[in-house]
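Hi Q.,

Before the meeting this afternoon, I wanted you to have the heme C prediction in hand. No need to reply - just skim if you have a minute. The sequence and ligand are here:
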Amino acid sequence: MLSAVSFAPLGADVAFAQDDNAAVATRLADLLRSARTVISTNQGLINDPSKGDKGLTGERVLTEAIALYTERTGEDPRDSDPASREGRLLRAQMEAIQEVVEENQSTINVEGVGFKGFIPAIFARLVNEKFGERVGDEARIKVTAPEELVRNRKARPDEWETSVIEDKFKAAQWPKGDPFSESVQVDGHPAFRIIVPEYYAASCLSCHGEPAGDVDITGYPKEGGKEGDLGAAISITLFE
Ligand code: HEC
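Predicted structure with the ligand bound:
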């Protein structure tokens, strides 16, 4: 029996490992997106100047994010095996989601202020930073964008991300929404990298839309983007 295993073609093993990497990374991207949607759905509540305590606790945001993820994927992230890599990483991400909301309660609950700057992009960055503090030697998640659109320097695409964005995602023949993945070295370690393009929706344009240069509610100049333009990319690294 053992010899049968050793006769398995190496290519099959490698392909299997890549499928597994892609599956884990996709789940992490989906859970991040679900949590971001929860913040977006509750943006009106967060921005309500007439309310103090909003009841938007870390636990509530996580519960809503899990519900949305389960609806979208048919899987509950809490059912993953906690001893597996996927289970470990999803749990680290769930904890990060809850903690970021908990740490920002005083901002969210301030009375008399409308826009508080607690928006999906900032929330996602904080979640990804916290995730990295926990499991950064195993996995990293970053939301980036084409270089000319980047607002926060921490979100700047690295060389690999830039080459995928410029040469693949911006190519006319690239199928919209298709991710790109590759096994490469990151900081001297072998890693699986995957990057998923995202496009501006109408809801993004109050800040990222036209006219370019006009200052948005957050104080940044608008990028002049249009609905459907490539505006973002979720970049995930899994160390082997
Ligand atoms: C209320 C204004 C606002 C809206 C609406 C908004 N964004 Fe942003 N976005 C920002 C701000 C401010 C930042 C900088 C966040 C930070 O400091 O990390 C940002 C950052 C980003 C980033 C990270 C890269 C960077 O520039 O730092 C991406 C990608 C992004 N936004 C895409 C989108 C997309 C896609 C949508 C719609 C689904 C959207 N944004 C909606 C204000 C907004």
